[in-house]
TrEMBL record:
It holds the Pfam family MMR_HSR1. Residues 2-159 form the Obg domain. This is GTPase Obg. GO terms for biological process: ribosome biogenesis. Mg(2+) binds at S173, T193. Residues 160-336 form the OBG-type G domain.
Length: 501
């Protein structure tokens, strides 16, 4: 049964933005009183949080597909859709997040660090927000955009001050159990430890963490045994403690040969750029199992040779705890020195310079592409791509609104400069995108509205006459009657009429 996972692929999907609503308010004696469609809610984000209480990625190994909540749809009566809830995924401190190309996106080394792994979609505006003096009752709304979907690789690298390295059954788990409150599994067979164990060691006023790395063998850096999977947990450690078994019964093994094998594997493991090579870090040697008479004799025999190589050597016993106090103080001294060195060599933080957007930066660019079907002009940019995704192309008025927006940011002028003519193929967005034949004289539905400027027959259908209109109509009627009487009088005087008795 799997109990520890330090590398996993997670398929994340952020929430989709809700669509805006098309609605007209209805009141007594005024059935068309204006737009009241609300906007759609934004989709939820997928957020990774470094949580000190989480120690494994096992939960994501069992459930690799994670999705945030979608935004709610807008509704009439000015009701906006609800925003989708963010999906917060706790991960262990020391988790490295990589994209599908293997590029590192973030290294969550500090507790509480948050990283938005997938941004939620944007909710579409309702016709209430799209109304203006020229467009008093928009018959369309904007659609919500899709959230981001993709695969992320989570890789855990244990953060500890000291790494215990050595052959299987050398006593590393017993040592971390003796020096700290950790309770790792301990047995007398190789590869008992199948995942790194962390322990906190308190020595006087000094406190540091120790990582028990699973046993390394010859060829570990090439994938043999368990070393390749867990050598990454040594990367973040400040110092190394070689735990050498002085009471091994395996033929051909002794502390000196074990140390050479482990050093070769550590040297063969490539560390990330900018980090100190593993063998260049401070190192101590612990000769373990001196509680066994043969082990004590072997430790006393090899100690002078190890010290001649420049190592500080400690003879210890995890059973009787002999030598552990001296070893603890020596490790604390190394850790404190390394912490101070990091503080002294910490790079000066660069000042953040905020640069305003250039005046001629329209937020898009036009790329000319040639193909077997002729030249096409591709428009790339966050704004036009989002606007296209929010447009309902089944609605002519919505298409006209899109044309207005594109024209306002200068896309037509940019197409002319790029050499586009009427009928040229234009693509908005990467890949297939949205393809259309460009017509420079494209007009929007707002420009063909009926009625005077600032009016809309769909919202103002009231046919009642004003007092001024009634007065003018009355005067016209009186003028018509007076003209009719004058015409009759003229005909009578001309003798066209005869009086009848």
């Amino acid at each position: 049964m799997v109990t520890f996972v330090d590398r996993v692929q997670v398929h994340v999907q952020s929430g989709r933005g809700g669509n805006g609503c098309v609605s007209i308010r209805r009141e007594k004696f005024k059935p068309l009183a204006g737009p009241d469609g609300g906007a759609g809610g934004h989709g939820g984000d997928v957020v990774l949080v470094a949580d000190p209480q989480v120690t494994t990625l096992l939960d994501y190994h069992r459930r690799p597909h994670r999705s945030a909540e979608n935004g709610g749809y807008g509704a009439g009566d000015y009701r906006a859709g609800t925003n989708g809830a963010d999906l917060v995924l706790p991960v262990p401190v020391g988790t490295v997040v990589k994209n599908e190309a293997g590029e590192t996106l973030v290294d969550l080394t500090e507790p509480g660090t948050r990283f938005i792994a997938a941004k939620g979609g944007v909710g579409g505006l309702g016709n209430l927000a799209l109304a203006s003096s020229k467009r008093k009752a928009p018959g369309f709304a904007l659609l919500g955009t899709d959230g981001w979907a993709g695969t992320l690789t989570l890789e855990l690298k244990t953060i500890a001050d000291v790494a215990l390295v050595g052959y299987p059954s050398a006593g590393k788990s017993s040592l971390i159990a003796a020096m700290s409150a950790a309770k790792p599994k301990i047995a007398d067979y190789p590869f008992t430890t199948l995942h790194p164990n962390l322990g906190v060691v308190q020595v006087a006023d000094h406190r540091f963490t120790v990582a028990d790395v699973p046993g390394l063998i010859e060829g570990a850096s090439e994938g043999k045994g368990l070393g390749l999977d867990f050598l990454r947990h040594v990367e973040r450690c400040s110092a190394l403690l070689h735990v050498l078994d002085c009471a091994t019964l395996e033929p051909g093994r002794d502390p000196l040969s074990d140390l050479e094998v482990i050093k070769n594997e550590l040297a063969a493991y490539p560390v990330p750029e900018g980090q100190t090579a593993l063998l260049e870090r401070p190192q101590l040697i612990a000769l373990n199992k001196i509680d066994v008479p043969e082990g004590r004799e072997l430790a006393e025999f090899v100690r002078p040779e190890l010290e001649a190589q420049g190592y500080r050597v400690f003879e210890i016993s995890t059973v009787s705890h002999e030598g552990l106090r001296e070893l603890g103080f020596a490790l604390a001294e190394l850790v404190e020195a390394e912490r101070q060195r990091r503080i002294d060599e910490a790079p000066v933080q660069e000042r953040i310079v905020l640069q305003p957007k250039a005046v001629d930066d329209g937020g898009f660019r036009v790329v000319t592409e040639g193909g077997s079907y002729g030249t096409l002009y591709r428009i790339l940019g966050a704004k036009p791509e989002r606007w296209v995704a929010q447009t309902d192309f089944k609605n002519d008025e919505a298409v006209g609104y899109l044309a207005d927006r594109l024209q306002k940011i200068g896309i037509e002028d940019a197409l002319v400069k790029a050499g586009a003519v009427a009928g040229s193929t234009v693509v908005i967005g990467p890949g297939a995108g949205v393809v259309f034949d460009w017509e420079p004289t494209m007009t929007s539905a707002a420009e063909v509205q009926m009625g005077a400027r600032g009016t809309d027959l769909r919202v103002d259908p009231n046919g009642r006459r004003t007092n001024q209109e009634r007065r003018a109509e009355y005067h016209n009627l009186m003028d018509a009657k007076a003209a009719a009487r004058a015409e009759l009088e003229r005909e009578r005087k001309a003798g066209l009429w005869e009086d009848q008795q």
